[in-house]
Amino acid sequence: MDAKRETFEIRLKNSATEIEALLDALLSPTVLSDEIARPDLLRNAMHYAVLNGGKRLRPFLVVEAATLLGGNRQAALRVGAALECIHCYSLVHDDLPAMDDDDLRRGKPTVHIKFDEATAILAGDSLLTYAFDIIAAPETDLPDRSKTELVLALARAAGLGGMAGGQILDLAAEKHAPDETGIIRLQAMKTGALIRFACEAGAIIAGASSEERQRLRRFGEKIGLAFQLADDILDLTSDTKTMGKATGKDAARGKGTLVALHGMEWAEKQLRQHVEDAEELLHPYGEHAAMLKATARFIADRKS
Ligand code: GRG
Asked: Best label site of 33, 190, 195, 256, fewest CB within 10 Å?
């Protein structure tokens, strides 16, 4: 492994450890002010949904983007934890029988298998709500204006016009295969929106100029495209053991992906192009952006 990749992997691992410690503390039995009680069953299901492995890529992007632009690291960790709560909620709900009906996630039984369906639905709901609590809470050391911007951007990324909207387009795509524009749009919503938010959030936390915020947002869009393309390639080339979840499901359902449309050779070339474009966007920051550039390469080269 080259030295740069090794440095990146150590940094990702360390940041994942910090995020997991924070998530564990946030999901402790201690009742917060204005909460009435924390029912054990629901809290345990949320804890299981969140602290069950996972690369913690989205929080890493928040922290690294904020670091690049001089933002407060502790605040970035809390926003990263909030984003991970939303990501995990989406996985819990995506795995439900009414959606993808999966038994395995991150190599372990999915939440509705380990607990039950009602608990999984409520754990997802509570993780979604908790994300906004974590950002707005006084412990997140940011000006109110930044918190409002973060809440608004995250709500737009996760909801009707973002991830949840993308999920319904994805479900509809099983019945009527979308054309190329439709595939790109649904993927930008379902997967891309949270990744773009992660990068833009770093700029918001740092109180960066609108030009810098826009640059980080475009970087997020590019790596979001790379992430989805890599996911589609892995769905065809990897196995359940490596991925920790079922593979080959998209192809089996005849679900339209860009890989299915254009072939593997095109997809791999396109993937490299997205990474190059992403790196180019960070050119003005030189070596300071080495970690974010390494993240773009990791997303394209990942094996799970
Ligand atoms: C239920 C509202 C709602 C949305 C679901 C995220 C999602 C939308 C569906 C998951 C299906 C899927 C496999 C999407 C592809 C991209 C993706 C989110 C992969 C998993 O993300 P990783 O690789 O996972 O970052 P870890 O486990 O490392 O966190």
From this structure: 33
